[in-house]
Amino acid sequence: MLSWLDSMESIQYEIRRVFGFLFICVGAAVAIASVTSEILFLNHLPVYLHGVVWLGTFGIIFGLYFMCFKQKIPLIRNRMKSSLLWPRYIKIINGSCWALPFLLIGIFPQYFQYLILLGIGLGNSSTYIFMKIFSHQNNKEQFLAGLIALLAIPIAIEIDTSLFVSHQDIAVLLSRILISISYTIGGTYALFSKTKI
Fold first, then answer.
1. Residues near 60 by Cβ (< 8 Å), separated by ≥ 6?
2. Backbone angles phi, psi at 122, to 5 degrees
3. pLDDT of 110-139, one tens digit each?
């Protein structure tokens, strides 16, 4: 019985580590792409290169991630599959938390940096809450990433409306860095926390 429990705890710890690295990869990709995109902007390079930078950065980093963790991909799938058992209305609420802020960017493009933070914050926070209630998983790294993203919104507003009001490119860069920080902190917590899932 003890060996079975030890095995389950070992698997749960491994899942947390895999997701910790995933979150750190998201943070690194956002930071690298944001800084590179700002360099392109300052040098007045073609706009299409921004898309190339973002797609290329995420492609390279996640390509390396899945190469290193290809044997752990089933663990990622298993954690995500648990949401398939949620009631339909919960899936709709969770999906809306993720999607609605991003959809609103099309209507309010001037607020896109806040809406991105809102989507990441609400999406991760709601997923944490529903995972805890319906899947009995305590994925605190996801809660941390969501909470920090939500707390970063007033900081981003302050940066945008007062500190860098005449340098909108810097304001956008810093708001993206806040996204990177939220995922990096969540991922770091997952790597070093010994708390059971």
1. none
2. -65, -40
3. 888 899 999 999 999 999 999 999 988 888
Alpha carbons 140 and 143: distance in angstroms, whole number: 5
Give the whole-angstrom CA distance, residue 32 versus residue 58: 9
**Residue 57 near residue 36 (C-beta atoms within 8 A):** yes
CA nearest to 117, candidates 77, 172, 79, 78:
172
Instruction: Give the predicted TM-score (pTM) of the model.
Output: 0.87
**Nearest residue to 22 (alpha-carbon basis) of 177, 191, 147:** 191
Which amino acid would we find at residue 54? W
- 130: its two tokens: 């529903």
Six token digits for residue 156: 């981003």
Tokens representing 28 are 């690194």
